[in-house]
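lol ok so funny story. i was supposed to be doing the assay writeup but got distracted and ended up predicting the structure for this chain instead. priorities right. anyway since i did it might as well share w the group, maybe its usefull for someone
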Amino acid sequence: MSPYLAEPRDLYHGRALCVLKPRTAREVGDILALCNEAGAPLTPQGGNTGLVGGQTPDASGASVVLSLERLSRIRAVDPIADAMTVEAGVTLAQAQEAAETADRYFPLSLASEGSCTIGGNLSTNAGGVHVIAYGSMRDLALGVEIALADGRLLSTLGALRKDNTGYDLTRLFIGSEGTLGVITAATLKLFPRPRSRAVAFLGLRDPAQALKLLNFVKDRAGPSLHAFEIASRSGVELVLRHIPGTRDPLAQPHDWYALVELAAFAEGEAERVAARILAAALGAHLAEDATLAQSLDQSGALWKLRESMSEAQKREGGSIKHDVAVPVNEIPHFIEEAGRRLRAAFPEARPIPFGHMGDGNIHYNVSQPVGADKAEFLARWGEVNAIVHGVVRELGGSISAEHGIGRLKRDLLRETKDPAALDAMRAIKTALDPKGILNPGVLL
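and the output, tada:
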């Protein structure tokens, strides 16, 4: 059972009575009914790629781990309705491939897409790099099938685009982290498949210049802008040091970088638009240097620099991570102020901010000082959190943008969430899971 009892960051290790692997939604419902009758706690788990401990049982050994990995059928793909229905254990990569086979596009894109599952993506309301163009999983789902705590199956599956018949149950369960029910399947939105893509990598002075560049590109690319990511030089250097096959794409180092992706529906159109925008941006002094990928391999190499940030930090040593969101216009101030406060409290710590500037989601990670003891550094997690999240709250931001709350941020949620909102959440939890068997200790 050991692969199901720990999570990728190695922060949480649990114990369990057993691991159950049902093959159908009805079997999931039967398991929940039995657990509910016995009062046995249950921990749902998808691909076990979550980063806040929401899929890990506690140390009591009383929980049943419910793995959804065998619910792996693509039930239907309808290119006319622009929808597909897939089961919770389908990996994100498999869902993308199913859409492409029907000449359609499913836009969610994550570094872990080969192993993360649709059920996990839905339970955490995953975002990824294309939120600026398509939104998060709440925006990408048309309906869900849910096994409730008492074993009943509730379904909102279907390709309806408009349904104004009461509460929006689909969106209620998405992002609930398995605390209200277990997602067994979903109907997902599909989109026309882009025929051309362009990926550019730009060297910048600072996040303030990145913000100006973002608005410049948005004004000229409109809906063709599919991603706008930023990273500091310190983060890129970690990738170059630890990830084989990576190289510096620009002739000179720069303090900051932006990775920009455009997509279009005519052959070659994205590349032509990107070339015009890059030339104009350089002419307007909104970037110091830039390169435009000339092949799929070059596009992949540029994305690898961004998507390898977390892995490079892991190889560098201890890292205290923050998945936060602030208003897009406040990102430069957030990065500057969080860095100033951290330097004052922890002079040797190394902030490595990067992420989805286009939607305000920054992964503000802090690597341990060079030569420091990893355990001693990680023991300061709470102090570092207090600094970073303090700036986030001052700017009207969120302590969790796309990873969820899980076990890691449960106490922080109580400290930062509107008490009335927490009361409403607890009331919903009590109504749907009166015995509290679903993922106890997670979120609430």
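The mean pLDDT is 96. The two ends are 26 Å apart (CA to CA).
back to the writeup now i swear
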